[in-house]
Amino acid sequence: MRLQSPEVAARFERIRAREVILEARGLGKVYQGAQGDTEALRGIDFKVHRREFVCVIGPSGCGKSTLIRILAGLEQATSGEILLDGAPVKGPGRDRGMVFQGYSLFPWLTVKGNVMFGPLMNGSSRGTAEQHAREWLELVGLSKFADAYPHQLSGGMRQRVAIARALVNQPRILLMDEPFGALDAQTRSKMQTHLLDIWRNLDVTVLFITHDLDEAIYLADRILVLKAHPGEVQELIEVPVPRPRSPGQFTTTEFQATRARVDALIHPPVEAPPDEAALVDKPMIRFTDVADDIE
Ligand SMILES: Nc1ncnc2c1ncn2[C@@H]1O[C@H](COP(=O)(O)OP(=O)(O)O)[C@@H](O)[C@H]1O
Ligand SMILES: [Mg+2]
């Protein structure tokens, strides 16, 4: 089934014509533990183009966090390699910004202090670091809260700070591991739209992990679907939903068809056990004494 409109197909043509920023080649990871080895990833190959927005989705435990930690240089791959702008990744670096689900802000620093931290570590003067921090806080809409402390902010605001703190170093790629996973539905939806606005205005590539299908389709150009045990690339899907995106598109044919397709990949249909009908037919035990039977 081909759902791409000519406009969307042309968009993917243009994306493919851009340079490759990130490339994973035959990436594998085996964790060695007392209870034996866990093969978390096997033979992962993919390429991400400049300014592309790629989401990674897959069941819990399929190696999503492992993958992003290897890309960030926080974890060593057992096999294969990662190239960033054509050069092998050996460890963490300023060229990759990380945003995690947990609020990883320094609680003893103000919002501004948190954003200034990276530039100061990289040798910027206080004045320059402060100026950059103010610019990025403006971009994420938090100028008024520059002097607040993390505990005074809502969950959504803390993730905005985390995004500003990652972007202030002007990374080539933003690596996000379920960054909105702990937020309530309404805040989460606002943050998704906010992230798209930021991305549209920057020269930054995004690799975003989620287990929420709607989130992946709403945000991504392409979705990398992983399967579990071991984590392998199941499919790389081009999202046929046009840009700019808006929540109104959730009901469109392209959106729903993509949703059904990814859903079938992640949750393959299981056959009901033969005795399931018998289970449903059993009379229920009654737990009420009210006997007027009006229900
Ligand atoms: N540090 C670790 N040591 C041993 N096993 C790990 C470690 N981290 C993750 N694993 C295992 O690797 C697999 C993938 O984990 P993870 O990357 O966290 O998956 P996901 O983020 O998709 O839920 C799981 O089976 C998990 O138990
Ligand atoms: Mg994870």
Automatic annotation (TrEMBL):
Keywords: ATP-binding, Cell membrane, Membrane, Nucleotide-binding, Transport. Pfam families: ABC_tran. Residues 22-253 form the ABC transporter domain. Transmembrane segments: none annotated. The keyword Cell membrane applies. It comes from the Bacteria. GO terms for molecular function: ATP binding. SMART domains: AAA. PANTHER family: ALIPHATIC SULFONATES IMPORT ATP-BINDING PROTEIN SSUB, TAURINE IMPORT ATP-BINDING PROTEIN-RELATED. Belongs to the ABC transporter superfamily. This is ABC transporter ATP-binding protein. It comes from Ramlibacter aquaticus.
